[in-house]
């Protein structure tokens, strides 16, 4: 079985089947994430401000003209 050292606390943790990898636990993962967010990483805001409002109307249409919930017979 493959084992890696948790980057946060250094504990050996299995790689396979570990949803928190490369960390040993959710705690260590959150700690690392928090540390990362706390750091002064300048993340430039994405420039695409366009949102697809068209989809709302399409969804409404589909809901109206969709199934009727009637039984045959
Ligand atoms: Zn850990």
Structural commentary:
The protein is of the alpha+beta class and 73 residues long. The protein has a single domain, classed as Erythroid Transcription Factor GATA-1, Chain A (2-Layer Sandwich), CATH 3.30.50. The chain contains 2 helices and 2 strands. A two-stranded antiparallel sheet has the order 1-2. It is flat, with a radius of gyration of 24 Å. 3% of the residues are buried.
The proportion of strand residues reads 5-15%
Task: Just name the CATH architecture.
Answer: 2-Layer Sandwich
Within CATH, the superfamily carries the name: Erythroid Transcription Factor GATA-1, subunit A
What is the CATH C-level name?
Alpha Beta
**Biggest β-sheet description:** 2 strands, antiparallel
Give the overall pLDDT as a whole number.
78
Q: Are any ligands bound, and if so which?
A: zinc ion
Spatial arrangement of strands, main beta sheet: 1-2
What's the SSE pattern?
EEHH
CATH topology: Erythroid Transcription Factor GATA-1, Chain A
Helix content: 25-40%
Query: Taking Cα atoms only, what radius of gyration do you get, to the nearest Å?
Result: 24 Å
Number of E-state strands = 2
**What's the tally of helices?**
2
Distance, first to last CA: 58 Å
């Amino acid at each position: 079985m493959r084992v890696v050292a948790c980057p946060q606390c250094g504990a050996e943790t299995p790689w396979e089947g570990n949803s928190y990898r490369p960390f040993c636990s959710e705690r260590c993962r959150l700690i690392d994430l928090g540390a990362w967010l706390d750091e002064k990483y300048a993340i430039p805001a994405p420039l695409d401000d366009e949102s697809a409002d068209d989809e709302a109307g399409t969804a409404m249409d589909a809901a109206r003209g969709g199934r009727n919930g009637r039984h045959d017979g």
